Amino acid sequence: QVQLVESGGGLVQRGGSLRLSCAGFGLTFAAYKMYWVRQAPGKGLECVSVINDGSGSTWYTDSVKGRFTISRDNTKNTMYLQMNNLKPEDTAEYYCYCVRDEGVIYWSYWGQGTQVTVYS
Fold first, then answer.
1. CA nearest 39: which of 89, 87, 94?
2. E strand map for the chain
C-alpha cells in the first residue's frame, strides 16, 4: 500500500522557520516527481514547489522564492521543504503529492497533510 506521510508542521512566529518532511512508503520514490501543495483556510489548492525525479530541478511559486527550499533524499524515500522567514500568509495545510507518468500508465498519490500556522 502506497503512503505519503508528512511531518514537521506546527505553530511558529513570523520570521521563524520550519522544515516539513514527506516520507514515501510502498512506491519507487525516485521515479516520482514530487510536489508541495498548500491550502489556506477558505482558499483553493496552491502548488508551492516542485522537484523533478531525474534532474532534481526545482520550481517555486513567486511568493515563496528565496524563502523556501525543496529537496529530496531518494536513499531515504523522503522529500523536504525548508521554510524560512515565514509569514502569516504562509498559514495553510501543507500536502505532499507525487506523480509518475509513464505515458500509458499514470500514478499519483497525496499525503494526509500537516498544518503550518504562522502568527504575527
1. 94
2. 3-7, 10-13, 18-25, 33-39, 45-51, 58-60, 68-73, 78-83, 92-101, 106-110, 114-119
pLDDT of residue 21: 98
Mean pLDDT, each 10-residue run in order, the chain (120 residues): 97 98 97 98 97 92 98 97 98 98 93 97
**8 Å CB contact between 38 and 92:** yes
- End-to-end, the C-alpha distance of the chain in Å comes to 40
Closest Cα to residue 54, out of 74, 31, 36? 31
How far lies 42's CA from each of 11, 71, 93, in Å?
Answer: 19, 28, 11
DSSP 76: T
Classify residue 43 by its DSSP letter: S
Q: Which of 80, 75, 107 lies closest to 96 in space, CA to CA?
A: 80
Q: Is 88 helix (H, G, I), strand (E, B) or coil?
A: helix
Q: Which pLDDT belongs to residue 56? A: 86
